[in-house]
Amino acid sequence: MAMNYNAKDEVDGGPPGAPGGAAKNRRPDNTAFKQQRLPAWQPILTAGTVLPTFFIIGLIFIPIGIGIFVTSNNIREIEGNVFMYYGLSNFYQNHRRYVKSRDDSQLNGDPSALLNPSKECEPYRRNEDKPIAPCGAIANSMFNDTLELFLISNDSAPYAIPLKKKGIAWWTDKNVKFRNPPGGENLEERFKGTTKPVNWLKPVYLLDSEKDNNGFINEDFIVWMRTAALPTFRKLYRLIERTEDLHPTLPAGRYYLNITYNYPVHSFDGRKRMILSTISWMGGKNPFLGIAYITIGSISFLLGVVLLVINHKYRNSGNTADITI
Amino acid sequence: MALCAKKRPPEEERRARANDREYNEKFQYASNCIKTSKYNILTFLPVNLFEQFQEVANTYFLFLLILQLIPQISSLSWFTTIVPLVLVLTITAVKDATDDYFRHKSDNQVNNRQSQVLINGTLQQEQWMNVCVGDIIKLENNQFVAADLLLLSSSEPHGLCYIETAELDGETNMKVRQAIPVTSELGDISKLAKFDGEVICEPPNNKLDKFSGTLYWKENKFPLSNQNMLLRGCVLRNTEWCFGLVIFAGPDTKLMQNSGRTKFKRTSIDRLMNTLVLWIFGFLACMGVILAIGNAIWEHEVGTHFQVYLPWDEAVDSAFFSGFLSFWSYIIILNTVVPISLYVSVEVIRLGHSYFINWDKKMFCMKKRTPAEARTTTLNEELGQVEYIFSDKTGTLTQNIMVFNKCSINGHSYGDVFDVLGQKAELGERPEPIDFSFNPLADKKFLFWDPSLLESVKIGNPHTHEFFRLLSLCHTVMSEEKNEGELYYKAQSPDEGALVTAARNFGFVFRSRTPKTITVHEMGTAITYQLLAILDFNNIRKRMSVIVRNPEGKIRLYCKGADTILLDRLHHSNQELLNTTTDHLNEYAGEGLRTLVLAYKDLDEEYYEEWAERRLRASLAQDSREDRLASVYEEVESDMMLLGATAIEDKLQQGVPETIALLTLANIKIWVLTGDKQETAVNIGYSCKMLTDDMTEVFIVTGHTVLEVREELRSAGGRREALPVRSPHSCPERPKAREKMMDSSRTVGNGFTYQEKLCSSRLTSVLEAVAGEYALVINGHSLAHALEADMELEFLETACACKAVICCRVTPLQKAQVVELVKKYKKAVTLAIGDGANDVSMIKTAHIGVGISGQEGIQAVLASDYSFSQFKFLQRLLLVHGRWSYLRMCKFLCYFFYKNFAFTMVHFWFGFFCGFSAQTVYDQYFITLYNIVYTSLPVLAMGVFDQDVPEQRSMEYPKLYEPGQLNLLFNKREFFICIAQGIYTSVLMFFIPYGVFAEATRDDGTQLADYQSFAVTVATSLVIVVSMQIGLDTGYWTAINHFFIWGSLAVYFAILFAMHSKGLFDMFPNQFRFVGNAQNTLAQPTVWLTIVLTTVVCIMPVVAFRFLKLNLKPDLSDTVRYTQLVRKKQKAQHRCMRRVGRTGSRRSGYAFSHQEGFGELIMSGKNMRLSSLALSSFTARSSSSWIESLRRKKSDSASSPSGGADKPLKG
């Protein structure tokens, strides 16, 4: 778009921009940067570097893979703490409209957001002219079956395994992200002016009897609110702590699972599961990672061998023999 | 002003009355104020934004932004688009504003220049912008002409004045303009103030060489032509002052009318990129459609039932509509495959490369103190793809400096320099030039090294004396002596100047001339010769002669001319001398010198009288005057005595032959397009080694008709085909060589040539074979036919089969046509290089225009894309800067598309697991920052700094240039490879974490597979993988690269933790909902195991593939890198230079590059100063037409040889 005619050039007449004293400055500086002579490392993929890399990757990955695999397979003896999960299938917690349907200000205890929840919560924003607390589709669809586990012994009444409901959420969630609205001692008072989510049986301030596990900081609620990445997921439900008198935590025997069925999944072909598991340094049972490591390690090693052969067979005479980076 | 110009209907004619501002104001002509700036403070923002949104890319992003504001569609927050968009708009706006600021400044500077305007009878200083149409202004010597003026009068006789038009047309020789006789006597202010003539003329136009108008004054009409005009942009020379009437001002001047908007040039990479971007949009749409269909099906099958927990939006009433909305949602989140930062980054990289060109001290000319300049910043990578170079000759290949180099006098050759044989003391250094101090009139700048010539003059060798006497007499040079002893020669052609200057220094000083006499200082004594006749030069005669009478009364004819002509016209007694001189001539021609033969002839009085009579009759003849005169001249110029020969060096620019040789080795074809004559052009062709004597054949096409040209072209083509049979000189192995040439080019095309070990001798032999052995020389008038529609292909084919093509006598338009022809059919990148205004058209037409700066005219530079002051810098511009730019740009684009596909396609795979709901995989901040922060700087650093081989190597192995010409590094195939790699990466990037996360839990038992942890894991592995990839792609790790690559990683983690921190969440809980996520997720060993696994799987195949390619099919650059590493010193230094010594063939060109007619001008005395006394009588006889008056003047001076003497003349 520039005009071809440049008035400035007309001024100087001669070579453009050569007025008096400036002439000296026209000489480019002799710096390494301007002359593109910066010292530089110029790596080349040579046999000396590539082949060892492949072998090393192979040699590292295979043991790691085996380690992971063995660890993962060992997670079945019900020793130590046992974790009780509920699993849902075909449940789209990662749907865009679902994911955004929450108001983190409200959940963080912001009083104005409590009474005036974000528009993102529609259509679970207000009910009967009252703001919903907690608002949104996520909260509304909270899993509310109750699971109880009993050890059946022949000689006595079924022994209810103690299920710990605290310590199942991230510390940051419980202490930073989720807060009850400020106000008086009484939680009910703090939630005054709001109504319960449509699907809920009871309001949020009645989720639990313990004060530090009630309202927005109820851990079952927090766990639910941490949406899953995939449509089939499991969420931690309860902890079965190892106690001194039970060896192991869940001794062999017949167990009885009592489910209070509140949560319908049948309409959308959902499935519910209950999982009991222990964990290791790398979490729960995870065969994929171990197998993947072993496979990739082996491929890397094989590739190293193949490249070595090719390199020996076809390499350019004298070119690569003594090259190092 | 501009507004007013628009309202005005187009002018039909222009009226301007002198000294009558009121009258002229009626017409509202444009003032002399020029405006090249585009904005002012108020209009800047709206106008600039409007311009920017005309860019398709910007509008596209604006469209995306609007889409994002629709809640049902918005899959990303608005800031993911607006942040980059605003960034881009701001950067561009700042750049535009700075440019415009400088335009304002230069406008002001020009508009505020002072000029002297005649107002109310007095001269007043006025600024240029206040000069109006109809004003009379006074110009002084060496001043710029302020507007288009009608010359009224000047300090010179007859209202002549001299101007230099370098600004306008690039011609540096002076031109003469003359006032019409009635006004030329208006010498003083009082007369001028009363002048009230009115000019009616054509409306403003851009024709520089045409003007028609009429002056109405004192009830008389006087026709006006271009001869009476001084155009804006010219400089007044050798004229003390002149007065002019302003006809066109400011934007109406011919200079401004000519400065059209430059055509915007795009590189082939640009065009490819635009195509690819379109394809990507198509791809995007396909993805969108697939996902939209998926969404509709999902909503229909699953979504309707899932409404218990997730009801549809109010507006959505069917699965189909939901699918439609999700199409747009996906367009938004997938748009990052073509991020806006692509265009910005490309510009930044090009700007960087341009600065490297500006900063290159190896392209800085010490002598002229001019650095190279990239005037266009958008073409750099095209410099790495040039296949054809079109070069001007004068001023580009040559310096346009003629140097008296050697001479042969009476069979003795002078001028050889004995630096090697004679004085071996200082190798390579020339001994001191000879000392001319004995001669107070000598020109200090003249250098000559052979002392024997001076000795010969000093001992009074009569031949030598006669030789220099001839040089001092036989010419059309004008002399000027401002102060005693300070002689200046105004020569029509530099050749003549060189010869007269040589004579001057050797003691035969041409001092002054009048129409009838020439005064020469011969060895200190002034001798005045009577000038009887000038037998002027023309193209057919190829010689000029003077007939003089020396003080003793003897009449002698001195002649100089082309050897081919002159050697045939010698007296037969010269045979022996002729042989030796011919040997010398051959020797000179072999060195690429321009030769002239000198001869004389004594005439006796009677013969001369009789001859002069016949000449007069011939000159008065009505029909075929020219022919008759020529035959009269021919008669007297016969049986001449040979004096000797001169050899003038048309000085080549430094390093021209080497540059041409190197560029030829790089498979670049060089065509010379020159306005010069065939002989001169061919001569230069030889001296810069484009033409060589071992060429099979040089086809010369000079036909005047279509048929002739076709015949000549065909026969050239035919001879090429059937060479072994028809050419008696052809060697038997030539067909093999041709085959080899084709073979080698084919293999090079496939890139397989260099898998064998690199060996310099082998390389050379391949290159030698490619360098063909034919050359084509074509004349301008033949070219006109050859460029006609039905013959252009034939011409092009023949020309392209030739190794060298020289087009001579071509017009500026033809230059552009030739370039256009190659552009049209060859699909090759063309580069035009030139220095003058006659090159402007070709510079603008070619893909890349290069101007030679530091010359007097700057038109070429203004039109050019790159400028530097020496032709030899071209090799560095192309082989180093161009090659690197191309390489860097290609690597940049490959990586850029790769990283964005890897980044974006993850959403596509995720779509299948989230109900096609357009949920993003990553955090929105990651999406915003990925392209502008996390991955931008490392790839920019690679795009700006990367080098595959050091600069010396690209000069040593010109074949390294070839990948660019063949477009190997970035083309559709490479693009698909990058895309495939990107998609491959995205698949792993999604499915490996998917596989791991599906069943996993954290080490504290809680769920691992929550959305936020998944997002952080995928994002982190993506950043690490693309950083690894840029590490692999970077071939030249400077500290900056290290800093950017490691810095980007560090910044990623820093920003990640900051975004997930408590502080930000407390302030904006709804914006930073990832709080605490980074520390929770990245503390998990499983996550890190996943990241490592993903990285290895993504990178391993790339490394293996590249290693295999290096091993099995290395590029030349790879091999050069290897050898570099191994440090096997190869003696490649002298490889590039081909044989310099060459057996000389005779190429005699008459070295004059001037027009005929100056002889007449001199004899008429028209261009000599006359006293004011004589002025009136002279002008009374002048007719309005300058040329006619010239003719008449000449003929009547010829009729009465003494008749002219009654006019008092002063030297």
TrEMBL record, chain A:
<protein>
    <recommendedName>
        <fullName>Cell cycle control protein</fullName>
    </recommendedName>
</protein>
<comment type="similarity">
    <text>Belongs to the CDC50/LEM3 family.</text>
</comment>
<dbReference type="GO" id="GO:0030658">
    <property type="term" value="C:transport vesicle membrane"/>
</dbReference>
<dbReference type="GO" id="GO:0045332">
    <property type="term" value="P:phospholipid translocation"/>
</dbReference>
<dbReference type="GO" id="GO:0005794">
    <property type="term" value="C:Golgi apparatus"/>
</dbReference>
<feature type="region of interest" description="Disordered">
    <location>
        <begin position="102"/>
        <end position="125"/>
    </location>
</feature>
<keyword id="KW-0812">Transmembrane</keyword>
<keyword id="KW-0445">Lipid transport</keyword>
<dbReference type="Pfam" id="PF03381">
    <property type="entry name" value="CDC50"/>
</dbReference>
<dbReference type="InterPro" id="IPR005045">
    <property type="entry name" value="CDC50/LEM3_fam"/>
</dbReference>
<dbReference type="GO" id="GO:0016324">
    <property type="term" value="C:apical plasma membrane"/>
</dbReference>
<keyword id="KW-0813">Transport</keyword>
<keyword id="KW-1003">Cell membrane</keyword>
<feature type="region of interest" description="Disordered">
    <location>
        <begin position="1"/>
        <end position="28"/>
    </location>
</feature>
<keyword id="KW-0333">Golgi apparatus</keyword>
<feature type="transmembrane region" description="Helical">
    <location>
        <begin position="44"/>
        <end position="70"/>
    </location>
</feature>
<keyword id="KW-0968">Cytoplasmic vesicle</keyword>
<keyword id="KW-0472">Membrane</keyword>
<keyword id="KW-1015">Disulfide bond</keyword>
<feature type="transmembrane region" description="Helical">
    <location>
        <begin position="288"/>
        <end position="310"/>
    </location>
</feature>
<keyword id="KW-1133">Transmembrane helix</keyword>
<dbReference type="GO" id="GO:0005783">
    <property type="term" value="C:endoplasmic reticulum"/>
</dbReference>
UniProtKB/TrEMBL annotation, chain B:
<dbReference type="Pfam" id="PF16209">
    <property type="entry name" value="PhoLip_ATPase_N"/>
</dbReference>
<feature type="binding site">
    <location>
        <position position="676"/>
    </location>
    <ligand>
        <name>ATP</name>
    </ligand>
</feature>
<dbReference type="InterPro" id="IPR023298">
    <property type="entry name" value="ATPase_P-typ_TM_dom_sf"/>
</dbReference>
<comment type="similarity">
    <text>Belongs to the cation transport ATPase (P-type) (TC 3.A.3) family. Type IV subfamily.</text>
</comment>
<feature type="compositionally biased region" description="Basic and acidic residues">
    <location>
        <begin position="731"/>
        <end position="743"/>
    </location>
</feature>
<feature type="region of interest" description="Disordered">
    <location>
        <begin position="1182"/>
        <end position="1211"/>
    </location>
</feature>
<dbReference type="InterPro" id="IPR008250">
    <property type="entry name" value="ATPase_P-typ_transduc_dom_A_sf"/>
</dbReference>
<feature type="binding site">
    <location>
        <position position="393"/>
    </location>
    <ligand>
        <name>ATP</name>
    </ligand>
</feature>
<dbReference type="InterPro" id="IPR023299">
    <property type="entry name" value="ATPase_P-typ_cyto_dom_N"/>
</dbReference>
<dbReference type="InterPro" id="IPR032631">
    <property type="entry name" value="P-type_ATPase_N"/>
</dbReference>
<dbReference type="Pfam" id="PF16212">
    <property type="entry name" value="PhoLip_ATPase_C"/>
</dbReference>
<keyword id="KW-0813">Transport</keyword>
<dbReference type="GO" id="GO:0007030">
    <property type="term" value="P:Golgi organization"/>
</dbReference>
<feature type="transmembrane region" description="Helical">
    <location>
        <begin position="892"/>
        <end position="913"/>
    </location>
</feature>
<feature type="transmembrane region" description="Helical">
    <location>
        <begin position="76"/>
        <end position="94"/>
    </location>
</feature>
<dbReference type="GO" id="GO:0016887">
    <property type="term" value="F:ATP hydrolysis activity"/>
</dbReference>
<feature type="binding site">
    <location>
        <position position="392"/>
    </location>
    <ligand>
        <name>Mg(2+)</name>
    </ligand>
</feature>
<keyword id="KW-1133">Transmembrane helix</keyword>
<dbReference type="InterPro" id="IPR044492">
    <property type="entry name" value="P_typ_ATPase_HD_dom"/>
</dbReference>
<keyword id="KW-0547">Nucleotide-binding</keyword>
<dbReference type="InterPro" id="IPR036412">
    <property type="entry name" value="HAD-like_sf"/>
</dbReference>
<dbReference type="GO" id="GO:0000287">
    <property type="term" value="F:magnesium ion binding"/>
</dbReference>
